[in-house]
Design a protein that fits this description.
This protein is of the alpha/beta class and 437 residues long. It contains 14 helices and 15 strands. It has helices spanning 7-29, 33-49, 51-64, 69-75, 79-94, 133-144, 158-175, 205-212, 227-236, 259-271, 290-303, 312-317, 346-356, 369-378; strands at residues 102-107, 113-120, 123-128, 148-152, 197-199, 220-224, 249-253, 280-286, 307-310, 337-343, 361-365, 383-386, 406-407, 415-416, 423-430. Helix 2 (33-49) packs antiparallel against helix 5 (79-94). The longest helix is centred in the N-terminal third of the chain and has 23 residues, at 7-29. 49% of the residues are buried.
Length: 437
């Protein structure tokens, strides 16, 4: 166990790391695309080369963890997951440059020409818990978008997070060696400082407190974890927060749904990976088709190990289902448990989601286009899907290469946060001698 860290020590670390990250961010903002991409590719190679060290570190985390089920699944790494992590960095490298994009341009009657240009945010603070891959995704997205990042992983994934961070930094150092195949390698600032990716030296909560109070050091905090973490960040932060709230996602089976499609989608939405934030936690099904279809859906899921919490109308069809408590429809299970409710139609489904949802992701399964469009227009969530699994709410599936989280707020970014969402903008104004009258 790491020795307990005091507030002063954590704040001193943040001051040092923040100064280094700020210097690195200034370099990154002017680093050519070719150099940023080269760093990402080198980091991917370094992750593969360090597979043995990273998996051994992950084994240490797993051995120290008393958790099981979905939590352990989120923590566990494998050769396949590590390979996917490295491939994710390569996919980010293949994406277009998010910097320097002209977002808008216009000319005023006085001849002044205006441009709104995409620019980096600066220094990102990333606080996450059990998922080791979050550190790699955050590092990759921040590098490509010209931001430095300060990471703080949870105690559960401490060894894994350190090993991944060490490998990525090794990749940055390898990429700093001039390479004739990189057109801009001769430019001094094409080398990316390894301080562009900092990590807290321990998992002590004092480091979280220091980062939350890091105004002037950190430009944006992104929490990635459970409800308690997000609530603490939103309550205590003195830095702007890009919040990731609960993933209390719903799948609504409309009366026009194709039964076979509904069964396939619901099984995937709930049971593919029950512990991810895009997993469906509540099934809503129209009363018109529930007597015939609900028993089949329940049987499919039960065979996969799912448990249920059902309200009265669902239990009238399947009396053996456990009764749902009032709190169950407000619960993000993150486990193979599904809340079930029979509804009288699309308006009741929308009302239920408005009352119990977390503005994350909702899906409708329907053949009726009018009903589907009504549902998509009626929800107020970051992501709405028609005839697809809620588990598609993932940055990789959106074509973002990876994601740094799912934003459920209403300012700056919503849904999967990728490269574009990690940029801000500034204005460039070009004149020909104009002065104000």
């Amino acid at each position: 166990m790491d020795q307990s860290v005091g507030t002063a020590e954590a704040e001193a670390w943040l001051a040092r790391a923040g100064r280094a990250a700020r210097r690195a961010a200034r370099v990154l903002a002017e680093t050519p695309l070719a150099a940023r991409n080269a760093a990402l590719l080198a980091a991917a190679d370094a992750l593969r080369a360090a597979e043995g060290k990273i998996l051994a570190a992950n084994e240490a985390d797993l051995a120290a963890s008393a958790s099981d089920g979905a939590f352990r699944d989120r923590l566990a790494l494998s050769p396949a997951r590590l390979a996917a992590m490295a491939s994710g960095l390569e996919e980010i490298a293949a994406l277009p440059d998010p910097l320097g994009r002209v977002l808008a341009e216009w000319e005023r009657p006085n001849g002044l020409r205006f441009q709104r240009i995409a620019t980096p945010i600066g220094v990102i603070g990333m606080i996450y818990e059990s998922r080791p891959n979050v550190g790699a995704d955050a590092a990759g997205l921040c590098l490509k978008s010209g931001n430095a990042v300060i990471l703080r992983g949870g105690s559960e994934s401490l060894h894994s997070a350190r090993a991944i961070h060490a490998a990525i930094r090794e990749g940055l150092r390898a990429a700093s060696i001039p390479d004739a195949s990189i057109p801009d390698a001769s430019i001094p600032d094409a080398s990316i400082p390894d301080a562009a990716i900092e990590i807290a030296p321990a998992a002590d909560r004092a480091y979280v407190g220091a980062m939350l109070g890091g105004g002037g050091v950190i430009d944006l905090i992104i929490p990635r974890g459970g409800k308690a973490l997000v609530e603490r960040v939103e309550r205590e932060a003195r830095v702007p927060v890009l919040a990731h709230a609960e993933g209390l996602c719903h799948t609504y089976v409309h009366e026009s749904a194709d039964p076979a499609m509904a069964r396939r989608i619901v099984a995937n939405a709930k049971m593919r990976r029950p512990g991810v934030c895009g997993a469906t936690e509540t099934l809503l099904i129209d009363a018109a088709i529930a007597p015939a279809l609900l028993p089949l859906i329940v049987a499919d899921l039960a065979a996969m190990g799912c448990e249920f919490r059902a309200e009265a109308r669902a239990r009238a069809i399947l009396p053996t289902l456990p009764e749902a408590s009032p709190e169950d429809f407000d619960t993000e299970w993150l486990a193979p448990i599904l809340s079930v409710k029979v509804v009288g139609g699309i308006e009741e489904a929308l009302a239920h989601i408005a009352r119990h949802g977390s503005s994350h992701t909702e899906a409708i399964i329907a053949e009726d286009r009018v009903a589907a469009e009504r549902f998509l227009a009626g929800i107020d969530s970051a992501v709405g899907l028609w005839n697809a699994s809620t588990q598609f709410c993932d940055g990789g599936e959106f074509g973002f290469g990876a994601e740094i989280g799912i934003a459920t707020g209403r300012i700056h970014a919503r849904g999967p946060v990728g490269l574009e969402q990690l940029t801000s903008f500034r204005y460039l104004v070009r004149g020909s001698g104009q002065i104000r009258p």
